Amino acid sequence: MLTITVERHAQDEEYFSPWFDGHYGWHFHHDDITAEGADALAGLLTQQVRLRWRPRPSGAPRGPRIPSVLKRRPVMPYDELALASDQADGIVYLMRADLITARGAEGFIRALVGVIPHWKRLDLRRAG
Fold first, then answer.
1. Residues with Cβ within 8 Å of residue 6, at least 6 apart in sequence
2. How far apart are CA 15 and CA 9, in angstroms?
3. pTM of the entire structure?
């Protein structure tokens, strides 16, 4: 079963933008995301890929870029830490603002837009 991880690197590391390791892991600098934020984002991304996404087979052509945004909110609906709306015309992530910096959110989305073409969306009727 697909599981996405979010690793929060050590506090003493030189700054880097969030990046995806090509397998199932996201990497964030300590200053860009809290431990609670990393857990919330990992859970959200895991749920999203289990329901809606799979890696494209090796050698398959790349898919389209899908517009994506991460909006930081001081208060979240239903007291959630992170939510996603994954629609055909784009993906909108909401995350509690104290869990991720604006810089971290922007870096994550920049990296995500480059990762998405290597994954394919599942037909929701057949997902699961």
1. 25, 26, 27, 28, 33, 38, 39, 41, 42, 45
2. 10
3. 0.93
Residue 37, CA atoms < 13 Å, CB-side half-sphere:
25
- List Cβ neighbours of 56 (8 Å cut-off, separation of 6 or more): 62, 63, 118, 119, 120
CA distance 40 to 98: 12
The distance of Cα 68 from the centroid of its chain, to the nearest Å, equals: 10
pLDDT averaged over the chain? 94
- CA–CA dist 11, 32 (Å, integer): 10
Chain centre to alpha carbon of residue 14: 22
